[in-house]
Amino acid sequence: MRFTKDHEWVALDGDVATVGITAYAAEQLGDVVFVEVPEVGKVVKTGDGLAVVESVKAASDVYAPIAGEVVEANGALSDTPETVNHAPEGDGWFAKLKVADKAAVEALMDRDAYEAFLQTL
Amino acid sequence: MTDTAQADLKRTPLYDAHVALGARMVPFAGYAMPVQYKLGVMGEHKWTRENAGLFDVSHMGQARLRGVAPQAAFEEVVPGDIIGLKPGKQRYSMLLNKKGGIIDDLMVARPDADGLFVVVNGACKENDFKVIDAELAGQVTIERLENRALLALQGPKAAEVLAAHLPAAADMAFMDSAALTAFGVDAIVSRSGYTGEDGYEISVPAEAAEAVWSLLLSDERVRPIGLGARDSLRLEAGLPLYGHDCDETTSPVEAALTFALSKRRREAGDFPGAARVRTELAGELSRVRVGLKVLEGAPAREGAEIADQGGAVVGVITSGGFSPCLGQAIAMGYVPPALAAAGTALKVIVRGKPQAAEVVAMPFVPNRYHRKA
Fold this sequence. Notes:
The complex is a heterodimer of chains A (121) and B (373).
Chain A: E1 2-3, E2 8-13, E3 16-21, H1 23-29, E4 32-36, E5 43-44, E6 49-55, E7 59-63, E8 68-73, H2 83-86, E9 95-98, H3 102-106, H4 111-119
Chain B: H1 3-8, H2 15-20, E1 24-28, E2 31-36, H3 40-50, E3 52-56, E4 61-67, H4 70-74, E5 90-96, E6 102-109, E7 116-120, H5 125-135, E8 140-144, E9 148-154, H6 158-163, E10 177-182, E11 185-190, E12 199-205, H7 206-217, E13 222-224, H8 227-236, H9 263-268, H10 274-281, E14 288-294, E15 305-307, E16 313-323, E17 328-335, E18 345-350, E19 353-360
Parallel strand pairs in B: 3-13
Antiparallel strand pairs in B: 1-2, 3-9, 4-7, 4-8, 5-6, 6-7, 9-12, 10-11, 11-12, 14-17, 14-19, 15-16, 15-18, 16-17, 18-19
Helix pairs in contact in B: 3-8
Protein backbone atom coordinates (compact mmCIF):
# COMPACT_ATOMS: atom_id res chain seq x y z
CA MET A 1 0.00 0.00 0.00
CA ARG A 2 1.24 3.48 -0.90
CA PHE A 3 0.17 6.86 0.47
CA THR A 4 -0.11 10.54 -0.52
CA LYS A 5 0.20 13.75 1.45
CA ASP A 6 -3.51 14.26 0.76
CA HIS A 7 -4.10 11.12 2.87
CA GLU A 8 -5.18 8.80 0.10
CA TRP A 9 -3.96 5.23 -0.12
CA VAL A 10 -3.33 3.14 -3.24
CA ALA A 11 -3.06 -0.65 -3.33
CA LEU A 12 -1.82 -2.11 -6.58
CA ASP A 13 -2.91 -5.55 -7.79
CA GLY A 14 -1.56 -6.22 -11.28
CA ASP A 15 -2.38 -3.04 -13.17
CA VAL A 16 -5.46 -2.20 -11.07
CA ALA A 17 -5.06 0.27 -8.21
CA THR A 18 -7.63 0.41 -5.41
CA VAL A 19 -7.95 3.89 -3.90
CA GLY A 20 -9.27 5.05 -0.55
CA ILE A 21 -8.54 7.48 2.26
CA THR A 22 -6.38 6.72 5.26
CA ALA A 23 -7.56 6.09 8.80
CA TYR A 24 -6.05 9.47 9.72
CA ALA A 25 -8.16 11.22 7.05
CA ALA A 26 -11.31 9.37 8.08
CA GLU A 27 -10.77 10.37 11.71
CA GLN A 28 -10.23 13.99 10.68
CA LEU A 29 -13.42 14.03 8.58
CA GLY A 30 -15.56 12.66 11.36
CA ASP A 31 -18.78 10.77 10.68
CA VAL A 32 -19.14 10.27 6.94
CA VAL A 33 -22.76 10.70 5.85
CA PHE A 34 -22.46 10.63 2.06
CA VAL A 35 -19.95 9.44 -0.53
CA GLU A 36 -20.00 10.26 -4.22
CA VAL A 37 -17.96 7.70 -6.16
CA PRO A 38 -16.92 8.11 -9.82
CA GLU A 39 -18.63 6.43 -12.74
CA VAL A 40 -16.97 3.45 -14.36
CA GLY A 41 -15.12 4.56 -17.46
CA LYS A 42 -14.12 7.94 -16.10
CA VAL A 43 -10.51 8.75 -16.97
CA VAL A 44 -8.59 10.77 -14.40
CA LYS A 45 -5.19 12.42 -14.24
CA THR A 46 -3.20 12.55 -11.02
CA GLY A 47 -4.78 15.23 -8.83
CA ASP A 48 -8.20 15.20 -10.52
CA GLY A 49 -11.26 14.90 -8.33
CA LEU A 50 -12.09 11.23 -7.94
CA ALA A 51 -14.71 11.14 -5.21
CA VAL A 52 -16.45 13.42 -2.72
CA VAL A 53 -16.85 12.45 0.89
CA GLU A 54 -19.23 14.39 3.11
CA SER A 55 -19.47 14.72 6.87
CA VAL A 56 -22.28 16.45 8.77
CA LYS A 57 -20.47 19.71 8.34
CA ALA A 58 -18.54 19.69 5.08
CA ALA A 59 -17.85 18.14 1.69
CA SER A 60 -14.27 17.10 0.94
CA ASP A 61 -12.77 16.16 -2.41
CA VAL A 62 -10.77 12.99 -2.78
CA TYR A 63 -8.14 13.40 -5.48
CA ALA A 64 -6.84 10.72 -7.79
CA PRO A 65 -3.43 9.75 -6.39
CA ILE A 66 -2.59 8.18 -9.74
CA ALA A 67 -3.75 8.55 -13.34
CA GLY A 68 -6.00 5.88 -14.75
CA GLU A 69 -9.43 4.73 -15.87
CA VAL A 70 -12.10 3.86 -13.33
CA VAL A 71 -12.94 0.17 -13.74
CA GLU A 72 -15.00 -0.25 -10.57
CA ALA A 73 -16.58 2.03 -7.98
CA ASN A 74 -17.65 1.09 -4.46
CA GLY A 75 -21.40 1.45 -4.86
CA ALA A 76 -22.02 -0.06 -1.43
CA LEU A 77 -20.95 3.26 0.09
CA SER A 78 -24.17 4.92 -1.08
CA ASP A 79 -26.12 2.85 1.47
CA THR A 80 -23.40 2.59 4.11
CA PRO A 81 -21.16 5.66 3.92
CA GLU A 82 -20.10 4.99 7.53
CA THR A 83 -17.95 2.14 6.22
CA VAL A 84 -15.40 4.85 5.39
CA ASN A 85 -15.09 5.47 9.15
CA HIS A 86 -15.20 1.83 10.19
CA ALA A 87 -12.82 0.40 7.57
CA PRO A 88 -11.13 3.27 5.72
CA GLU A 89 -8.24 1.16 4.52
CA GLY A 90 -10.44 -1.85 3.69
CA ASP A 91 -14.13 -2.01 2.72
CA GLY A 92 -14.27 1.78 2.66
CA TRP A 93 -12.37 2.02 -0.64
CA PHE A 94 -13.78 4.38 -3.28
CA ALA A 95 -12.66 3.20 -6.71
CA LYS A 96 -10.41 0.87 -8.65
CA LEU A 97 -8.31 2.42 -11.41
CA LYS A 98 -6.62 0.69 -14.31
CA VAL A 99 -3.23 2.37 -14.32
CA ALA A 100 -0.66 2.67 -17.10
CA ASP A 101 2.23 3.90 -15.00
CA LYS A 102 2.73 1.44 -12.16
CA ALA A 103 6.07 3.03 -11.29
CA ALA A 104 4.18 6.19 -10.29
CA VAL A 105 2.43 4.16 -7.58
CA GLU A 106 5.70 2.78 -6.30
CA ALA A 107 7.03 6.34 -6.12
CA LEU A 108 4.43 7.34 -3.52
CA MET A 109 5.17 7.11 0.22
CA ASP A 110 5.31 3.70 1.85
CA ARG A 111 3.65 3.27 5.24
CA ASP A 112 6.74 4.19 7.22
CA ALA A 113 7.21 7.36 5.22
CA TYR A 114 3.51 8.23 5.59
CA GLU A 115 3.62 7.63 9.35
CA ALA A 116 6.66 9.91 9.53
CA PHE A 117 4.78 12.51 7.46
CA LEU A 118 1.84 12.37 9.92
CA GLN A 119 4.25 13.16 12.74
CA THR A 120 5.09 16.45 11.03
CA LEU A 121 1.46 17.64 10.98
CA MET B 1 -3.09 27.71 8.31
CA THR B 2 0.22 29.17 9.34
CA ASP B 3 1.41 29.66 12.89
CA THR B 4 1.37 33.41 12.35
CA ALA B 5 -2.32 33.38 11.44
CA GLN B 6 -3.03 31.15 14.42
CA ALA B 7 -1.26 33.62 16.69
CA ASP B 8 -3.41 36.48 15.40
CA LEU B 9 -6.55 34.78 16.63
CA LYS B 10 -8.13 35.96 19.84
CA ARG B 11 -8.81 33.46 22.60
CA THR B 12 -11.81 33.18 24.84
CA PRO B 13 -11.25 32.70 28.59
CA LEU B 14 -11.92 28.99 27.97
CA TYR B 15 -9.21 28.44 25.32
CA ASP B 16 -6.99 26.37 27.61
CA ALA B 17 -9.97 24.32 28.77
CA HIS B 18 -10.85 23.47 25.15
CA VAL B 19 -7.30 22.42 24.34
CA ALA B 20 -7.15 20.31 27.51
CA LEU B 21 -10.35 18.54 26.38
CA GLY B 22 -8.75 17.64 23.06
CA ALA B 23 -10.83 20.08 21.00
CA ARG B 24 -9.99 20.74 17.40
CA MET B 25 -9.55 24.50 17.28
CA VAL B 26 -10.46 26.51 14.18
CA PRO B 27 -10.62 30.22 13.34
CA PHE B 28 -14.12 31.64 13.78
CA ALA B 29 -15.09 35.30 14.06
CA GLY B 30 -11.46 36.18 14.74
CA TYR B 31 -11.19 33.69 17.61
CA ALA B 32 -9.65 30.26 17.97
CA MET B 33 -12.78 28.23 18.71
CA PRO B 34 -13.51 24.53 19.26
CA VAL B 35 -15.22 23.07 16.18
CA GLN B 36 -15.51 19.68 17.86
CA TYR B 37 -14.25 17.69 20.82
CA LYS B 38 -13.43 14.01 20.96
CA LEU B 39 -17.08 12.95 20.65
CA GLY B 40 -17.28 14.43 17.13
CA VAL B 41 -19.98 16.51 15.45
CA MET B 42 -22.53 13.70 15.10
CA GLY B 43 -22.08 12.50 18.68
CA GLU B 44 -22.12 16.02 20.12
CA HIS B 45 -25.27 16.87 18.17
CA LYS B 46 -27.14 13.83 19.44
CA TRP B 47 -25.83 14.29 22.98
CA THR B 48 -27.29 17.79 23.04
CA ARG B 49 -30.69 16.57 21.79
CA GLU B 50 -30.78 13.80 24.42
CA ASN B 51 -28.86 15.18 27.41
CA ALA B 52 -27.17 18.53 27.94
CA GLY B 53 -24.45 20.18 25.87
CA LEU B 54 -22.15 22.94 27.09
CA PHE B 55 -20.99 25.56 24.55
CA ASP B 56 -18.44 28.34 24.82
CA VAL B 57 -19.95 31.31 23.01
CA SER B 58 -17.69 33.91 24.59
CA HIS B 59 -16.78 35.24 21.14
CA MET B 60 -20.20 36.86 21.00
CA GLY B 61 -20.48 40.55 21.82
CA GLN B 62 -22.00 41.40 25.18
CA ALA B 63 -22.81 44.97 26.14
CA ARG B 64 -24.86 47.17 28.41
CA LEU B 65 -26.74 50.08 26.89
CA ARG B 66 -27.54 52.80 29.37
CA GLY B 67 -29.23 56.16 29.09
CA VAL B 68 -32.22 58.23 30.10
CA ALA B 69 -34.53 56.05 28.01
CA PRO B 70 -32.45 53.27 26.50
CA GLN B 71 -35.47 51.18 25.46
CA ALA B 72 -37.03 53.96 23.42
CA ALA B 73 -33.63 54.84 21.98
CA PHE B 74 -32.87 51.26 20.94
CA GLU B 75 -36.10 51.16 18.94
CA GLU B 76 -34.43 53.55 16.49
CA VAL B 77 -32.16 50.75 15.23
CA VAL B 78 -34.34 47.63 15.57
CA PRO B 79 -37.92 46.77 14.47
CA GLY B 80 -39.01 45.08 17.71
CA ASP B 81 -41.09 46.27 20.64
CA ILE B 82 -38.33 47.24 23.05
CA ILE B 83 -40.37 49.79 25.02
CA GLY B 84 -42.71 46.92 25.86
CA LEU B 85 -39.88 44.65 26.98
CA LYS B 86 -40.64 43.93 30.62
CA PRO B 87 -38.07 43.57 33.39
CA GLY B 88 -36.74 40.03 33.45
CA LYS B 89 -37.48 39.41 29.76
CA GLN B 90 -35.37 38.91 26.66
CA ARG B 91 -36.29 39.36 23.01
CA TYR B 92 -34.81 38.38 19.64
CA SER B 93 -34.34 41.35 17.33
CA MET B 94 -32.25 42.68 14.46
CA LEU B 95 -30.15 45.73 13.74
CA LEU B 96 -31.46 47.11 10.46
CA ASN B 97 -29.85 49.47 7.96
CA LYS B 98 -31.74 52.29 6.27
CA LYS B 99 -32.72 49.97 3.44
CA GLY B 100 -34.19 47.44 5.83
CA GLY B 101 -31.25 45.06 5.43
CA ILE B 102 -30.14 43.07 8.44
CA ILE B 103 -26.87 44.34 9.91
CA ASP B 104 -26.99 41.61 12.55
CA ASP B 105 -29.45 39.63 14.60
CA LEU B 106 -29.25 39.88 18.38
CA MET B 107 -30.75 39.28 21.78
CA VAL B 108 -31.83 42.23 23.91
CA ALA B 109 -32.78 41.80 27.55
CA ARG B 110 -33.67 43.56 30.77
CA PRO B 111 -32.08 41.27 33.35
CA ASP B 112 -32.23 44.05 35.94
CA ALA B 113 -32.84 47.80 36.20
CA ASP B 114 -29.44 48.60 34.66
CA GLY B 115 -30.45 49.55 31.13
CA LEU B 116 -30.41 46.93 28.38
CA PHE B 117 -28.21 43.85 28.08
CA VAL B 118 -27.44 43.07 24.44
CA VAL B 119 -25.73 40.04 22.89
CA VAL B 120 -24.69 40.20 19.22
CA ASN B 121 -22.82 37.88 16.86
CA GLY B 122 -19.07 37.63 17.33
CA ALA B 123 -18.20 38.25 13.68
CA CYS B 124 -20.35 41.40 13.61
CA LYS B 125 -19.75 42.89 17.03
CA GLU B 126 -17.24 45.63 16.15
CA ASN B 127 -19.48 47.02 13.41
CA ASP B 128 -22.68 46.54 15.44
CA PHE B 129 -21.52 48.65 18.34
CA LYS B 130 -20.10 51.25 15.96
CA VAL B 131 -23.52 51.51 14.29
CA ILE B 132 -25.39 51.66 17.60
CA ASP B 133 -22.97 54.26 18.91
CA ALA B 134 -23.30 56.38 15.76
CA GLU B 135 -27.08 56.16 15.57
CA LEU B 136 -27.80 56.59 19.25
CA ALA B 137 -25.06 59.04 20.20
CA GLY B 138 -26.21 61.23 23.07
CA GLN B 139 -29.03 58.83 23.90
CA VAL B 140 -27.23 55.75 25.12
CA THR B 141 -23.77 54.87 26.29
CA ILE B 142 -22.40 51.47 25.38
CA GLU B 143 -20.35 49.47 27.84
CA ARG B 144 -18.75 46.54 26.06
CA LEU B 145 -18.52 43.61 28.49
CA GLU B 146 -15.31 42.20 27.06
CA ASN B 147 -14.30 40.91 30.46
CA ARG B 148 -17.19 38.47 30.52
CA ALA B 149 -17.51 34.96 29.15
CA LEU B 150 -20.73 33.47 27.77
CA LEU B 151 -21.65 29.82 28.16
CA ALA B 152 -24.68 28.04 26.73
CA LEU B 153 -26.11 24.95 28.41
CA GLN B 154 -28.58 23.31 26.02
CA GLY B 155 -30.67 20.19 25.93
CA PRO B 156 -33.54 18.38 27.67
CA LYS B 157 -31.44 17.84 30.81
CA ALA B 158 -30.08 21.41 30.97
CA ALA B 159 -32.74 22.54 33.44
CA GLU B 160 -32.12 19.82 36.00
CA VAL B 161 -28.37 20.25 35.65
CA LEU B 162 -28.44 23.99 36.23
CA ALA B 163 -31.05 23.77 39.00
CA ALA B 164 -28.53 21.82 41.09
CA HIS B 165 -26.30 24.92 41.12
CA LEU B 166 -28.93 27.62 40.72
CA PRO B 167 -32.41 26.66 42.00
CA ALA B 168 -33.88 29.92 40.67
CA ALA B 169 -33.16 28.76 37.11
CA ALA B 170 -35.96 26.21 37.38
CA ASP B 171 -38.54 28.98 37.73
CA MET B 172 -37.43 30.79 34.59
CA ALA B 173 -39.42 30.39 31.37
CA PHE B 174 -38.20 30.61 27.77
CA MET B 175 -36.77 34.08 27.13
CA ASP B 176 -36.66 35.08 30.79
CA SER B 177 -33.49 36.93 31.78
CA ALA B 178 -32.09 37.58 35.23
CA ALA B 179 -29.05 39.19 36.79
CA LEU B 180 -28.24 37.22 39.89
CA THR B 181 -25.50 35.57 41.89
CA ALA B 182 -24.70 32.17 40.43
CA PHE B 183 -21.66 30.00 41.03
CA GLY B 184 -20.61 32.62 43.57
CA VAL B 185 -20.22 35.37 40.98
CA ASP B 186 -22.41 38.01 39.38
CA ALA B 187 -24.11 36.34 36.45
CA ILE B 188 -26.67 37.16 33.80
CA VAL B 189 -28.74 34.10 33.00
CA SER B 190 -31.37 33.74 30.30
CA ARG B 191 -33.47 30.72 29.42
CA SER B 192 -32.64 30.70 25.73
CA GLY B 193 -30.18 29.42 23.20
CA TYR B 194 -29.72 28.59 19.54
CA THR B 195 -30.25 24.86 19.33
CA GLY B 196 -34.06 24.52 19.47
CA GLU B 197 -33.71 22.87 22.87
CA ASP B 198 -34.57 24.11 26.32
CA GLY B 199 -31.52 25.62 27.96
CA TYR B 200 -29.72 28.63 29.28
CA GLU B 201 -27.15 31.23 28.30
CA ILE B 202 -24.94 32.20 31.20
CA SER B 203 -22.76 35.31 31.27
CA VAL B 204 -20.07 35.28 33.96
CA PRO B 205 -16.88 37.27 34.64
CA ALA B 206 -13.99 35.97 32.52
CA GLU B 207 -11.97 34.98 35.57
CA ALA B 208 -14.79 32.70 36.74
CA ALA B 209 -15.42 31.10 33.36
CA GLU B 210 -13.14 28.10 33.69
CA ALA B 211 -14.46 27.20 37.15
CA VAL B 212 -18.09 27.41 35.98
CA TRP B 213 -17.27 25.44 32.81
CA SER B 214 -15.51 22.70 34.78
CA LEU B 215 -18.23 22.51 37.41
CA LEU B 216 -20.97 22.06 34.79
CA LEU B 217 -18.86 19.50 32.91
CA SER B 218 -18.34 17.52 36.09
CA ASP B 219 -22.01 16.52 35.77
CA GLU B 220 -22.13 13.27 33.78
CA ARG B 221 -25.17 14.52 31.87
CA VAL B 222 -23.08 17.33 30.36
CA ARG B 223 -20.58 17.14 27.49
CA PRO B 224 -18.70 19.97 25.75
CA ILE B 225 -20.08 20.76 22.29
CA GLY B 226 -18.23 22.50 19.47
CA LEU B 227 -19.23 24.88 16.70
CA GLY B 228 -19.80 22.01 14.26
CA ALA B 229 -22.72 20.62 16.23
CA ARG B 230 -23.87 24.12 17.14
CA ASP B 231 -24.33 24.70 13.41
CA SER B 232 -26.16 21.43 12.69
CA LEU B 233 -28.37 21.94 15.77
CA ARG B 234 -29.43 25.45 14.77
CA LEU B 235 -30.02 24.27 11.20
CA GLU B 236 -32.41 21.55 12.40
CA ALA B 237 -34.08 24.17 14.58
CA GLY B 238 -34.67 26.34 11.50
CA LEU B 239 -32.69 29.21 12.97
CA PRO B 240 -30.82 31.47 10.54
CA LEU B 241 -27.08 31.93 10.78
CA TYR B 242 -26.12 35.54 10.24
CA GLY B 243 -23.81 36.11 7.29
CA HIS B 244 -25.19 33.01 5.59
CA ASP B 245 -28.98 32.87 5.86
CA CYS B 246 -29.37 36.62 6.20
CA ASP B 247 -27.14 39.64 5.65
CA GLU B 248 -27.24 43.36 4.86
CA THR B 249 -29.13 42.71 1.62
CA THR B 250 -31.93 40.63 3.14
CA SER B 251 -34.88 42.12 4.97
CA PRO B 252 -36.67 40.57 7.96
CA VAL B 253 -39.56 39.68 5.64
CA GLU B 254 -37.31 37.95 3.12
CA ALA B 255 -35.50 36.16 5.95
CA ALA B 256 -38.85 34.89 7.31
CA LEU B 257 -38.27 36.70 10.60
CA THR B 258 -41.53 38.67 10.63
CA PHE B 259 -42.27 37.36 14.13
CA ALA B 260 -39.63 39.82 15.29
CA LEU B 261 -41.48 42.79 13.75
CA SER B 262 -43.66 44.39 16.40
CA LYS B 263 -47.22 45.17 15.32
CA ARG B 264 -46.99 48.64 16.84
CA ARG B 265 -43.74 49.33 15.04
CA ARG B 266 -45.07 48.02 11.72
CA GLU B 267 -48.11 50.26 11.95
CA ALA B 268 -46.01 53.26 12.95
CA GLY B 269 -43.38 52.49 10.31
CA ASP B 270 -40.78 54.00 12.61
CA PHE B 271 -37.78 51.68 12.18
CA PRO B 272 -34.99 51.65 9.59
CA GLY B 273 -36.20 50.29 6.27
CA ALA B 274 -39.86 50.34 7.39
CA ALA B 275 -41.02 51.38 3.91
CA ARG B 276 -39.42 48.34 2.31
CA VAL B 277 -40.80 46.04 4.98
CA ARG B 278 -44.30 47.46 4.52
CA THR B 279 -44.10 46.99 0.75
CA GLU B 280 -42.88 43.43 1.14
CA LEU B 281 -45.56 42.58 3.69
CA ALA B 282 -48.14 43.92 1.22
CA GLY B 283 -47.01 41.28 -1.25
CA GLU B 284 -44.17 42.78 -3.24
CA LEU B 285 -41.69 40.16 -2.23
CA SER B 286 -39.18 38.61 -4.62
CA ARG B 287 -37.68 35.95 -2.37
CA VAL B 288 -38.19 34.34 1.00
CA ARG B 289 -36.19 31.99 3.19
CA VAL B 290 -37.57 28.44 3.26
CA GLY B 291 -36.55 25.06 4.60
CA LEU B 292 -35.81 22.24 2.19
CA LYS B 293 -35.49 18.52 2.58
CA VAL B 294 -33.11 17.04 0.05
CA LEU B 295 -34.79 13.83 -1.03
CA GLU B 296 -31.90 12.19 -2.89
CA GLY B 297 -28.17 12.43 -3.37
CA ALA B 298 -25.59 14.56 -1.65
CA PRO B 299 -26.26 17.23 0.97
CA ALA B 300 -26.90 20.62 -0.66
CA ARG B 301 -24.66 23.17 0.99
CA GLU B 302 -24.30 26.95 0.95
CA GLY B 303 -24.09 28.27 -2.61
CA ALA B 304 -25.89 25.38 -4.30
CA GLU B 305 -28.53 26.57 -6.76
CA ILE B 306 -32.23 25.82 -6.39
CA ALA B 307 -34.17 25.08 -9.57
CA ASP B 308 -37.84 24.59 -10.35
CA GLN B 309 -39.21 21.41 -11.90
CA GLY B 310 -38.46 22.78 -15.35
CA GLY B 311 -34.81 23.26 -14.46
CA ALA B 312 -34.85 27.07 -14.26
CA VAL B 313 -32.71 28.42 -11.42
CA VAL B 314 -35.02 30.10 -8.91
CA GLY B 315 -32.83 30.56 -5.85
CA VAL B 316 -29.85 29.55 -3.79
CA ILE B 317 -29.07 27.49 -0.72
CA THR B 318 -27.72 29.63 2.14
CA SER B 319 -26.92 26.81 4.54
CA GLY B 320 -27.32 23.12 4.42
CA GLY B 321 -25.98 19.85 5.63
CA PHE B 322 -26.88 16.50 7.01
CA SER B 323 -29.43 16.33 9.80
CA PRO B 324 -28.21 13.87 12.42
CA CYS B 325 -31.71 13.59 13.93
CA LEU B 326 -33.57 13.07 10.64
CA GLY B 327 -30.82 11.05 8.96
CA GLN B 328 -31.16 13.05 5.76
CA ALA B 329 -29.90 16.22 4.14
CA ILE B 330 -31.68 19.49 4.99
CA ALA B 331 -31.08 23.06 3.92
CA MET B 332 -32.29 26.64 4.01
CA GLY B 333 -32.41 28.85 0.98
CA TYR B 334 -34.22 31.64 -0.80
CA VAL B 335 -36.95 31.08 -3.39
CA PRO B 336 -39.74 33.22 -4.89
CA PRO B 337 -42.86 33.30 -2.67
CA ALA B 338 -44.82 31.37 -5.32
CA LEU B 339 -42.51 28.41 -4.69
CA ALA B 340 -42.33 28.78 -0.91
CA ALA B 341 -45.34 26.72 0.18
CA ALA B 342 -44.61 23.54 2.11
CA GLY B 343 -44.80 20.57 -0.22
CA THR B 344 -43.49 22.43 -3.27
CA ALA B 345 -41.24 20.12 -5.30
CA LEU B 346 -37.94 21.72 -6.31
CA LYS B 347 -34.45 20.66 -7.36
CA VAL B 348 -31.15 21.46 -5.71
CA ILE B 349 -28.11 21.40 -7.94
CA VAL B 350 -25.11 19.76 -6.31
CA ARG B 351 -21.90 19.52 -8.33
CA GLY B 352 -23.90 20.00 -11.51
CA LYS B 353 -26.49 17.33 -10.76
CA PRO B 354 -30.15 18.19 -10.10
CA GLN B 355 -31.50 16.35 -7.05
CA ALA B 356 -35.10 16.21 -5.84
CA ALA B 357 -35.94 18.45 -2.90
CA GLU B 358 -39.11 19.60 -1.18
CA VAL B 359 -40.06 22.74 0.69
CA VAL B 360 -40.90 21.90 4.30
CA ALA B 361 -42.02 23.93 7.30
CA MET B 362 -39.33 24.83 9.81
CA PRO B 363 -38.17 23.89 12.37
CA PHE B 364 -37.07 20.60 10.82
CA VAL B 365 -36.95 19.09 14.31
CA PRO B 366 -39.61 20.30 16.79
CA ASN B 367 -38.25 22.82 19.25
CA ARG B 368 -38.61 22.15 22.95
CA TYR B 369 -38.44 25.57 24.51
CA HIS B 370 -39.69 25.83 28.11
CA ARG B 371 -42.64 28.12 27.54
CA LYS B 372 -44.87 29.06 30.44
CA ALA B 373 -48.32 27.52 30.15
